[in-house]
TrEMBL record:
Domain Flagellar basal-body/hook protein C-terminal positions: 230-274
The keyword Hydrolase belongs to this UniProt entry's keyword annotation: no
UniProt xrefs under SUPFAM superfamilies: Flagellar hook protein flgE
Family per record: Belongs to the flagella basal body rod proteins family.
Name used for this protein in its record: Flagellar hook-basal body protein
Signal peptide residues on this chain, from the entry's feature table: none
Species the sequence originates in: Kurthia gibsonii
Highest taxon of source: Bacteria
Flagellar hook protein FlgE/F/G-like D1 domain boundaries: 118-181
A Pfam family of this chain: Flg_bb_rod
Location relative to the cell: Bacterial flagellum basal body
Length: 279
């Protein structure tokens, strides 16, 4: 009986966390470059239930005898949300008419033979604590010191991991990443490549970090990797709002079903304590 309480409770907790993840996706549906999170739900290991035959109960005094055990079947012990992984499918490209905005367009990205998934390319940026981070949000601007930055102040890096100095937004970005001012190349936008993007740690503001803080390789030198850039555009979020709302309703219904099971167990316990106990 008490096992049923725990099993139903784990189902409610898993669906609550799933709903929180989906709510965050909806909240970022209009965030440029945002990658929707996906969850995986797994069950805890099942317990094998057995009963002791009456004829063998007395023989337990002389030691355990497996022949006296009769298997009843498996007992589920609940579920949990194992992990959340971003969906790196490219979002639609939207024109912004802002010269500092850049959209990163995926070309040919090799499939990792170990994971069976494609790699991913990212803009390279530098955080306030001088860590190198990666993002797909190309909504850039120029700060008061003349450096190209993200909307939240991270410095955009070139292919040599240096900050990009631009006095104003009067520059041209080629599809291959070269930034030119008055016909002279001043920098090349830094692009990183990851053959295992699921291994990156996703943090707030659409930033990704490597687990060991080692820099990702230069995408320009990666074999078989092709991509282009488009100035005056940004990549929109890849959140499907309609599908996400449908999935949220599904999660709510499952949460509600587990809640009713929990209530049923509670009523059974109430009868066992207050009614059967009086007999």
């Amino acid at each position: 009986m008490f096992r049923g309480f725990y099993t139903a409770a784990t189902g409610m907790i898993a669906q609550q966390r799933r709903t929180e993840m989906l709510s965050n996706n909806i909240a970022n549906a209009n965030t440029p470059g945002y990658k929707a999170d996906q969850s995986t739900i797994r069950s805890f290991p099942n317990m094998l239930m057995s009963s002791i035959q009456k004829t063998g109960a007395a023989s337990l005094q002389n030691g355990f005898n497996p022949s006296n055990m009769q298997q009843i079947g498996d007992l589920g012990t609940g579920v949990y949300m194992q992990e959340t992984l971003p969906n790196f499918l490219q979002g639609s490209i939207v024109e912004t008419e802002s010269n500092t905005d850049v959209a990163l367009l995926d070309g040919d990205l090799p499939v990792n033979p170990q994971t069976g998934k494609q790699g991913a390319v990212f803009f390279k940026v530098q955080t306030a604590d001088n860590r190198q981070a990666y993002t797909r949000n190309g909504n850039f601007t120029i700060d008061g010191q003349g450096f190209l930055t993200t909307a939240r102040g991270e410095y955009v890096l070139d292919e040599n991991n240096n900050r990009i100095a631009l006095q104003n937004n009067d520059f041209t970005l080629k599809s291959t990443g070269e930034i030119t001012v008055d016909g002279q190349q001043v920098a090349r936008l830094g692009i990183a490549y990851s053959d295992q993007p699921d291994a990156l740690e996703k943090q707030e503001n659409g930033l990704y970090f490597t687990a060991n803080n080692q820099d990702l390789p230069n995408a320009y030198n990666a074999n078989g990797v092709t991509f282009t850039m488009q100035q005056g555009f940004t990549e929109s979020s890849n959140v499907d709002s309609a599908q996400t709302m449908t999935t949220m309703m599904e999660a709510y219904r499952v949460f509600e079903a587990n809640q009713k099971v929990l209530q049923a167990y509670d009523r059974s316990m109430d009868k066992a304590v207050n009614e059967i106990g009086k007999v």
